[in-house]
UniProtKB/TrEMBL annotation:
<feature type="domain" description="MacB-like periplasmic core">
    <location>
        <begin position="19"/>
        <end position="247"/>
    </location>
</feature>
<dbReference type="InterPro" id="IPR025857">
    <property type="entry name" value="MacB_PCD"/>
</dbReference>
<dbReference type="Pfam" id="PF12704">
    <property type="entry name" value="MacB_PCD"/>
</dbReference>
<dbReference type="GO" id="GO:0098797">
    <property type="term" value="C:plasma membrane protein complex"/>
</dbReference>
<feature type="domain" description="ABC3 transporter permease C-terminal">
    <location>
        <begin position="278"/>
        <end position="403"/>
    </location>
</feature>
<keyword id="KW-0472">Membrane</keyword>
<dbReference type="InterPro" id="IPR003838">
    <property type="entry name" value="ABC3_permease_C"/>
</dbReference>
<feature type="transmembrane region" description="Helical">
    <location>
        <begin position="21"/>
        <end position="43"/>
    </location>
</feature>
<dbReference type="GO" id="GO:0044874">
    <property type="term" value="P:lipoprotein localization to outer membrane"/>
</dbReference>
<keyword id="KW-1003">Cell membrane</keyword>
<feature type="transmembrane region" description="Helical">
    <location>
        <begin position="276"/>
        <end position="300"/>
    </location>
</feature>
<protein>
    <submittedName>
        <fullName>ABC-type transport system, involved in lipoprotein release, permease component</fullName>
    </submittedName>
</protein>
<keyword id="KW-0449">Lipoprotein</keyword>
<dbReference type="Pfam" id="PF02687">
    <property type="entry name" value="FtsX"/>
</dbReference>
<keyword id="KW-1133">Transmembrane helix</keyword>
<keyword id="KW-0812">Transmembrane</keyword>
<feature type="transmembrane region" description="Helical">
    <location>
        <begin position="373"/>
        <end position="394"/>
    </location>
</feature>
């Protein structure tokens, strides 16, 4: 207790040196917290966006369909009889599953009578898609599929904004779709343009259209679907349920694919940000170590006579070393506590300020700047900073404790 009391008194006495060290510790801790908070929220936001706007929590399909193999369209699609069996299997998880979304992928040529271009199409169950995400695509004009209640069975489509520009199509116009059916024939169908959407990715908006899945089946002349997309109430349950379903499908032609395995872009972002945080964290820790080491070394050199007096008054070598370490412990502890308070208050203010970030590469839509409060990681980072500070002060404290009384008093 005597050592701690002396440590606090010395900290208050040497304000200038300790203030600079405290600022560097506060800055280093806050920088780590802000970086990790941003990264964690980015992972969460990007993951939820990808899950809710297309990928789902896991997908069930034939591995050959996933690899786009086959001599004709939907050769490895899911038949209606197999679909019923899969849905029966999924009923075991009805408390976890929010919705099940059949998808049918197809491609062909879209025309407005004057111009034609290729397209990539999705047949979607509009009701289930909307249950899982009220905005599974962002509409720029018109309305989404399935919202014409006066004529719910009509042939309609929505298309990407860039594709609409290429073909000069507007809401209410009629477009003609031509595709190869599953039996190799060519089929064509007219459809009304109900809406124009944007995914935020220009290359996708140049090619993508969506139609009701029943219309897609009629166009393809099939009862098959490409895959079954499953959305859960809680993302944290997805990997366990996906693996469980995968095991139960081992004796079938189908398999379950976890959403992260279907999102190489997400994996790339995670790896990039993790590398960035390790690099940034390493630099900050080096700065903290250098700062504490330099500060304590200067303090020891300036207080040589003080340590001599303490030894002359009965302080042992161990007491001197503990005194220096206690000073750094108290200083670093107070600094990280101040940093935690400032950082989390700042995060809360930023989170409600609706600050918009610039669109990422390949996208034309910005996103809000948000931070995860990362409470557990905050405690861990604070402990690491304190331990690093103590580690950096070991050598100077050892030097101070080994001073001879006669030499110290003469300095």
């Amino acid at each position: 207790m005597k050592i701690v009391k002396f440590a606090i008194i010395n900290l208050l006495r040497n304000k200038k040196t300790n203030f600079t060290t405290a600022l560097l510790i506060i800055f280093g801790t806050s920088a780590l917290l802000f970086a990790l908070g941003f990264i964690k929220m980015s992972f969460f936001g990007l993951g939820e966006t990808m899950v809710r706007q297309g990928i789902g929590h896991f997908q069930i399909m034939n591995p050959n369909e996933k690899l786009s193999k086959g001599d004709y369209p939907l050769e490895f699609g899911i038949s209606s009889s197999d679909l019923s069996k899969i849905k029966t299997l999924l009923n075991e998880y009805e408390d976890d599953i929010e919705t099940i979304m059949p998808r049918l992928n197809f491609s062909g040529i879209i025309s407005n009578a004057d111009k034609s271009t290729i397209f990539l199409g999705k047949g979607v169950d509009t009701q289930n898609e909307s249950v899982f995400s009220s905005v599974f695509v962002k509409m720029e004009d018109g309305k989404n599929l399935g919202l014409d209640f006066d004529n719910p069975k009509k042939n309609e489509l929505i298309l990407g904004s860039k594709l609409a520009q290429i073909l000069d199509l507007k809401v209410g116009d009629t477009a003609t779709l031509m595709i190869n059916t599953v039996d190799g024939a060519i089929n064509a169908m007219d459809a009304d343009v109900s809406g124009i959407f944007s995914t935020g990715k220009e290359e996708i908006d140049k090619r993508l259209i969506m139609v009701p899945i029943d219309m897609a089946k009629e166009l393809m002349r099939t009862d098959k679907i490409s895959k079954l997309v499953v959305g859960l109430y809680k993302t944290e349950n997805s990997i366990n349920i996906s693996q469980d379903i995968k095991q139960k499908l081992q004796d079938t032609p189908y398999s379950s694919y976890f959403w992260e395995d279907l999102a190489p872009f997400y994996r790339g972002v995670v790896n990039l940000y993790n590398t960035f945080f390790i690099f940034l964290g390493g630099i900050i820790l080096i700065v903290v170590i250098s700062s504490v080491l330099g500060s304590v070394s200067v303090s020891v050199a300036q207080r040589t006579s003080e340590f001599g007096m303490l030894k002359a008054n009965g302080f042992s070598t161990k007491d001197i070393m503990l005194l220096v370490l206690s000073e750094i412990f108290v200083l670093s502890l107070v600094s990280v506590i101040i940093s935690l308070i400032i950082t989390h208050i700042s995060m809360s203010i930023i989170n409600v300020s609706d600050i918009q970030m610039a669109p990422p590469p390949g996208s034309n839509q910005g996103y809000p700047l948000l931070f995860d409060h990362i409470w557990l990681e905050s405690v861990i980072i604070a402990i690491v900073i304190v331990l690093i500070s103590l580690f950096a002060s070991i050598r100077p404290s050892f030097i101070a404790s080994r001073l001879k009384i006669s030499d110290a008093l003469r300095s």
